[in-house]
Structure formats: C-alpha cells, structure tokens
Design goal:
Layout: H1 2-24, H2 29-50, H3 61-88, H4 94-105, H5 113-120, H6 126-152, H7 159-167, H8 170-181, H9 188-214, H10 222-243, H11 251-261, H12 268-275, H13 280-304
C-alpha cells in the first residue's frame, strides 16, 4: 500500500506538472522533449535498468504473451463492433472502427508501463516489462496496427517508411547494446549516475504524457472509448492473467505481465489515427480516459495478482 501511494503521488504529480507546463510553455516544447526522450532518454534508461534486471528467467515468453494480448484485444473489439451492429442495426464508420480496435489492442507499455513496473515490482523484473514492450507492443503497434489502420483508414501506406521506423528505433538498439553491456563491470560512481539518469528519463516521460494530454481538448466518443478501454484494460488482463500459470509464469513475473497488459492505450494509436485518417476524436478520448482509468484499476490488479 505504501508503494502504491508513493507511485500515485509521483505518477499523478508528474502528469499534473506536465499538464501545467503544457499550457504554459510554447507548443514546440512537447515535440522536442519527445524527440529527446526517443533518441536519448529512453535508450539510457533501458541500458541503466537492464544492468539491474534478472535475465536468467524465461523472459522470452513475455513478448509471446504481449502478442496474444494484442490479438485478443483486436478480436474482442471486432466482436464488439459486430455485436453493436447486430443489436442496433447500425454500424461505425470504417475510421471509427479502426480507432476502436487500435485502442483495444495496443497499450502504453513504455512511458507508463515502465515506471509502474519499476515502482511496484522493482528493477529485478524490469526485463520482463522491457521484452514485453520492445518485442511485443512495438511490433504490435507498427506491424498489425499499421495493417489495420491502412485497412480502415483513408491514408496511403508506405511500408518501407514503416520498416525504417522500426529498424532505426533507438530503443531496440539500446536494448541490444544493454544486453551486451550487462557483462561489463563499471565503477560504483558510474553505476550510480547511470541509474539516476535512467530515473530522470522515466520522470520526464511522465511529464511528457501530461504535456500531451494538455493539448487534448476533445471528449467526444465517450461511449465507444469506454467499451474499447473495458476490453483493453479489464477483459484482456483478466483472461490472460488468469492463464499465466499455464505458461509457468507466477509471482512477480506474472504481476509485471498483468500490469503491462492493463496499461491504457499507447500514443501510437493517436499517431496512426493522424497518419491514416482514422477517428481522431475516439483516439484522443481513449488516451485521456485510459490514463484516468488506470488510477482506478491499478489497485485491483495488484490485489488480484
């Protein structure tokens, strides 16, 4: 309970700070901070926390669970669309269907999932969250997510640019470098400052979330967003979380996987909505409501698992 309260103070405090700064600072600041975190901050934090992580367990199963969660979320969202059409004899427009499915399948397992995992489980199991995000959520968003967005949207598709975006992702490169770097011994002072830099990057990522949310003004599509979030943040973690023991995942490792599955929709959903002309209002509403809903669902998952 103490750890949860500390997490809430930091999580809510840093996001609120970002909301305040987002309204006061020039509109160019959030994109620049995002670029800094993308190219520098997040890679440093990955290298720093990998040095403290336990890599001896069967962590390679984490991305497999991530892909299962992504496909299950997409399938349940498709069922919800078909069920709504059957019961009401009306159907969503194709762009709305695309945003609805994306919000139900891809989670913010990096900018929010990492700090939540580090605070509630610790650095020993950080590798589980990292593998889930980089080898699961990333490819889910820019692989299956792009395919769905191009299917339901009206934008053009340049698959070479998509491949380049994944290939040059510095988080993936720092992930590989960090795995090799774990074997190198460093002076205690260097380890100390490297870890501090990692935590600073985590704090800045939460501030950035607040800054981006400060720019979101639309709360339309609330009913559709509520259904997609129920799938993403309730049904999928409950179904797959209950089955983790069959995969041999128990204890703290199971807690990390459940927390990652229960994260709100990723900012990639808004990027894809913008790129492929999907329903932006639904994407925006799902993002904002998901962050608020996390504060209510997080204690439930910690209690259940």
């Amino acid at each position: 309970m103490t750890n949860l309260l500390e997490l809430y103070v930091k999580l809510v405090g840093l996001i609120l700070l970002g909301l305040f700064l987002g309204r006061k600072l020039p509109a160019t600041v959030p994109p620049r901070l995002g670029q800094f975190l993308f190219w520098v901050g997040v890679p440093i934090s990955i290298v720093a926390f990998l040095r403290q992580a336990d890599l001896s367990a069967q962590i390679w199963i984490a991305p497999a669970i991530a892909h299962l969660a992504i496909f299950l979320g997409a399938f349940l969202a498709w069922l919800a669309i078909k069920g709504q059409a059957y019961l009401t004899h009306t159907t969503f427009q194709h762009p709305t269907q695309g945003s609805f499915i994306l919000a139900a399948m891809v989670g913010n397992t990096g900018y929010i999932g990492f700090p939540v995992t580090l605070a509630m489980v610790g650095q020993d199991y950080f590798a589980w969250a990292l593998f889930y995000d980089l080898l699961g959520s990333l490819f889910g968003a820019y692989g299956l997510g792009v395919a769905l967005a191009s299917r339901f949207g009206y934008g053009g598709t340049n698959y070479w640019q998509i491949f380049q975006a994944i290939l040059i992702n510095p988080a993936l490169w720092s992930f590989g470098f960090g795995l090799l770097f774990c074997q190198i011994s460093l002076p205690i002072s260097v380890e100390f400052y490297l870890e501090k830099l990692g935590w600073i990057a985590v704090a800045l990522s939460l501030v950035l979330i607040g800054m981006r949310l400060s720019l979101l003004t639309s709360w339309q599509r609330l009913p559709q967003a509520t259904v997609s979030l129920a799938i993403k943040m309730l049904l999928v973690p409950l179904i797959l979380g209950s089955a983790l023991s069959f995969f041999g995942i128990t204890g703290s490792a199971a807690k990390v996987i459940v927390l990652q599955m229960a994260m709100p929709p990723a900012f990639a959903t808004m990027v894809l909505a913008e790129t492929f002309n999907l329903d932006r209002d639904l994407a925006v509403t799902s993002l904002a409501l998901g962050v608020i809903l996390l504060l209510l669902t997080l204690p439930v998952w910690l209690w259940l698992f």
